Amino acid sequence: MKGSFLGLLIATFLVTLAVFFQGGCTLIGQGFSAALSTLLQALPLLVVAFIVTGQIQVLLSLEWIDRLWNKLSGVKGIFISSVAGGVFPGPPYVYYPFISTFKDREIPSYMFFSFVAGKQVYDLLRLPMEMSLINPGIALLRNLITLPMPFLMGLIFRRFISRETTARFFGGRGV
């Protein structure tokens, strides 16, 4: 967490410096104003997301989660994780805290990957918006064409990504 915060802090400093050279303090003020507006729009969703995450942690015992993941490992787990990602509500700053709560469990990393891929490809809550803005036929066709992608991506991840590679990304744990 400290490394991520430091990296983001450095990026913030560099971008603010670039904005200063582009338009001075006035432009920096406009940037902070836009940031505050975005924060105020996202804050209620963030608060609710962390409340849901906390309640799920309390609701689901660690033993139950371990039993579930052991039953669902492999191909079944990839399929369930992909679908679960598609029906999980909210943007990334809602579902990443949720899946990070399971980081210390012995859950295979390919299941995390399948969850995120399912969220990005399926996101069933986006379907009504796509149908209304684009065209219902095109939206359904896009969903049908991409339907196997998270599942296939999870299978590929499971098959070809080594334990050592995922251990670097998942804090010492392998697949």
Question: Top keywords for this entry?
Answer:
about 180 residues, mainly alpha, 2 domains
Mean pLDDT: 80
Spell out the helices and strands N to C: HHHHHHHHH
Beta-strand fraction estimate: under 5%
**Number of helix segments?**
9
Are there runs of 5+ residues with pLDDT below 50, and where? Answer: none
How far is the first residue's CA from the last residue's CA?
A: 22 Å
Number of structural domains:
2
Global outline: globular
Q: Count the strands?
A: 0
Q: Helical percent range?
A: over 70%
Description:
- The chain has 175 residues and is mainly alpha-helical.
- Helix 1 packs across helix 4, helix 3 packs parallel to helix 5 and helix 5 packs antiparallel against helix 8.
- It has 9 helices and no strands.
- It is globular, with a radius of gyration of 20 Å.
- Helices cover 81% and strands 0% of the residues.
- The model has no long low-confidence stretch (mean pLDDT 80).
- The two termini are 22 Å apart.
Q: How would you summarize this macromolecular structure in one to three sentences?
A:
This protein is mainly α and 175 residues long.
Topology:
Elements: H1 2-59, H2 62-72, H3 75-87, H4 92-100, H5 109-121, H6 127-133, H7 136-146, H8 149-160, H9 163-169
Helix pairs in contact: 1-4, 3-5, 3-8, 5-8, 6-7
